[in-house]
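tokens incoming
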């Protein structure tokens, strides 16, 4: 009987545990224990239901085009609860000089695919519009070395495109800085497009059918909130295999296995899946595998704050149609982005309510986490007043702080992953999962947990995953 420890009860660890549980039920001779240091599971996934409003403390959805989270929902029997974003309302604004300017039609991420909407948009200067036109004539170009997203976008479209689009978009997704984030790790498709077509605009048009074949909504969530996914996994795991409020004090290799000390108890396992932030994994591995710990510890993280505010029907009527807005760094604001949740997803709030989610923090504003909730609310309300003209007080508000929760894929990230993998294989029975490696979204974390479980089973000579039928 092989024993596997899973350290970390976020969605990566839960996905690994569910994969192992299905194997165990199919007769594979294994046991596992899922360790979570805190009182609840799910990590940054946390949903509250307040006054008939569904309020997400962390992520509110996942990208539809990435299949792994939806596949897990099918396996859990909750696929009927999946709902798509209300894309008829999908419009995003950029705050420029305190005014909201809509992104022009035909903009794929930050790539113009239609001439006239971009040419007529007040979002871009004449100089940038000339750069957009000339970009169509860029020759194919292979780049061997990694580079930042900012340098890549600047080469194609100029500095203004970085400041007004690339940086705020990536800040909203990663909480990071376009001048630091790796093109190959964050936007590998763009590097491939440049190599094949030269022009990103030409590449987007050539690949449009493959990119948007099914006409599916951009985002997917669950009717009762993303917490529903966490709950569905937990009820499938036997209580004897799950431990909350159990912090791991030490991790040591011993006799081709691992000794784990937690809550004054020492247990031996044949394998360990570490589904915790890279810096936390580094701390546990610094004695037994210092080189691996050093590489893991070099992965940087950003912190964030989300603020949810519920308003009455008058505020709802005053807000622009769309999913929300992004704020470039040059605007001098602390709110990085705001989402109009009542537009993005139906039935999140009653018809006479508006739900606005604001995001603060990121690599440029780590000190915001040290502020009190009252001070954070004051900042948010002041900036909503300036940009949206909201004078009314919210019916209620919630502030959620997430310290060092978002991994930063800085330039050289893929090379670091190669070094991490070389060190990991020198530690038999050790497997890694989480948002520090090959994707930060919920689907990526689900995939990483399942892959870590699959690696563990293969390394121990147990049954292949294909023997487990999908219910």
């Amino acid at each position: 009987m092989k024993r596997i420890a899973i350290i970390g009860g976020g969605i990566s660890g839960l996905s690994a545990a569910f994969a192992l549980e299905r194997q165990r039920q199919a007769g594979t001779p294994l046991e596992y224990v899922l360790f979570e240091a805190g009182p609840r599971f799910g990590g940054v996934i946390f949903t509250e239901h307040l006054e008939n409003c569904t309020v997400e403390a962390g992520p509110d959805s996942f990208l539809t085009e990435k299949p792994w989270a939806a596949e897990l929902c099918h396996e859990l029997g909750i696929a009927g609860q999946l709902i798509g974003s209300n894309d008829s309302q999908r419009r995003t604004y950029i705050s420029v000089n305190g005014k909201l300017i809509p992104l022009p039609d035909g903009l794929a991420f930050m790539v113009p695919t239609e001439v006239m909407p971009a040419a007529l948009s007040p979002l871009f200067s004449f100089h940038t519009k000339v750069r957009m036109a000339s970009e169509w004539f860029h020759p194919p170009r292979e780049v061997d070395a990694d580079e930042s997203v900012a340098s890549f976008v600047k080469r194609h479209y100029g500095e203004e495109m970085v400041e007004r689009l690339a940086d705020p978009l990536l800040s909203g997704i990663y909480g990071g800085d376009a001048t630091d984030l790796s093109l190959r790790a964050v936007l590998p498709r763009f590097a491939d497009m440049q190599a094949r077509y030269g022009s990103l605009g030409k590449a987007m048009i050539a690949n449009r059918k493959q990119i948007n074949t099914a006409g599916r909504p951009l985002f997917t969530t669950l009717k009762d909130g993303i917490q529903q996914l966490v709950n569905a996994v937990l009820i499938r795991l036997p209580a004897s295999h799950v431990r909350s409020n159990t912090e791991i004090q030490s991790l040591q290799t011993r006799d081709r296995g691992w000794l784990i000390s937690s809550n004054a108890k020492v247990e031996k396992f044949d394998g360990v899946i570490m589904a915790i932030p890279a810096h936390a994994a580094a701390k546990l591995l610094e004695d037994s595998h210092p080189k691996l710990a050093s590489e893991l510890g070099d992965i940087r993280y950003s912190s964030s704050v989300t603020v949810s505010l519920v308003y009455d029907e008058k505020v709802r009527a005053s807000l622009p149609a769309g999913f929300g807005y992004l704020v470039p760094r040059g605007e001098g604001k602390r709110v990085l982005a705001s989402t109009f949740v009542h537009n993005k997803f139906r039935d999140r709030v009653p018809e006479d309510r508006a739900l606005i989610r604001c995001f603060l923090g990121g690599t440029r504003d780590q000190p915001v986490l040290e502020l009190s909730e009252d001070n954070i609310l004051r900042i948010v309300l002041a900036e909503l007043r300036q940009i949206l003209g909201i004078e009314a007080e919210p019916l209620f508000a919630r502030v959620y702080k997430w310290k060092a929760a978002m991994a930063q894929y800085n330039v050289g990230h893929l090379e670091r992953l190669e070094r991490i993998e070389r060190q990991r294989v020198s530690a038999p029975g050790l497997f890694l999962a989480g948002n520090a490696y090959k994707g930060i979204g919920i689907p990526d974390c689900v995939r990483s947990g399942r892959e870590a479980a699959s690696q563990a089973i293969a390394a121990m000579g147990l049954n292949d995953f294909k023997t487990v039928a999908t219910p």
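note: The chain is about 35% helix and 25% strand.
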